[in-house]
User: Which sequence fits this backbone?
């Protein structure tokens, strides 16, 4: 699991045998609990990926996804800003060629480019001492360096989620920022409350990592997601 260092410095994850869902599977699960995700498509070959890009609308992002693939960026398994069908087909072929035998079953994820000046992080993990916790903080590539993350026990009601948001040190990032509107707090409350419900209802979910949540027109969107399950449970 790719849990950020900033989380591990504060909590001690429960030690269990686990496996991860692919990014499309992870997003489908969290979306069912109110987490906003982009409208995406999957493909198994380059031609299908090009067709999917045509449907999603350019520019798009292509990723190689699979249950055994967690660190896509570090492995060069992401292609950004693809603007034509031919580029989509070429990028898809490149990504498929990078698959390794230990990746298992892989697929291509085709998603719209989501842009924004702010990145947040949210998630859930099960601590050995405190049980299920919902996390919220500043995200993206600087998440580990900044370390601005706060926790609350799950489940969360709306008031609990509001209080969690208020504890974030970097409140300025949530307000008007570089000419952009403030972050939609109601959307954040729904997202965090949803993670709390997921933790409460799905005992098989060990952890959830939403990093980054890109703020687009004031609304947080989970452009990446990774869900870890106990290995004894079947995928949802």
Assistant:
């Amino acid at each position: 699991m790719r849990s950020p260092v900033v989380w591990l410095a504060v909590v001690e994850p429960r030690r269990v045998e686990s496996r991860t869902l692919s990014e499309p599977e992870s997003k489908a699960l969290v979306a069912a609990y109110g987490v906003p995700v982009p409208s995406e498509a999957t493909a198994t070959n380059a031609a299908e990926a090009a067709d999917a890009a045509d449907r999603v609308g350019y520019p798009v992002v292509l990723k190689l996804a699979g249950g055994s693939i967690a660190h896509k960026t570090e492995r060069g398994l992401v292609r950004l800003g693809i603007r034509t069908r031919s580029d989509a087909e070429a990028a898809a072929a490149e990504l498929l060629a990078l698959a390794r035998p230990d990746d298992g079953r892989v697929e291509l994820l085709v998603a719209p480019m989501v842009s924004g000046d702010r990145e947040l992080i949210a998630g859930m993990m099960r601590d050995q001492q405190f049980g299920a916790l919902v996390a919220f903080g500043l995200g993206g590539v600087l998440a580990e360096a900044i370390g601005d993350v706060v926790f609350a026990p799950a489940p969360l009601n709306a008031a609990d989620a509001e209080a969690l948001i208020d504890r974030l040190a970097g409140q300025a990032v949530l307000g008007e920022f570089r000419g952009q509107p403030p972050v939609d707090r109601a959307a954040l409350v729904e997202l965090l409350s949803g993670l709390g419900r997921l933790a409460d209802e799905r005992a098989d979910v060990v952890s959830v990592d939403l990093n980054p949540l890109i703020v687009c027109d004031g609304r947080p969107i989970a452009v990446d997601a990774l869900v870890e399950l106990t290995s004894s449970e079947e995928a949802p």
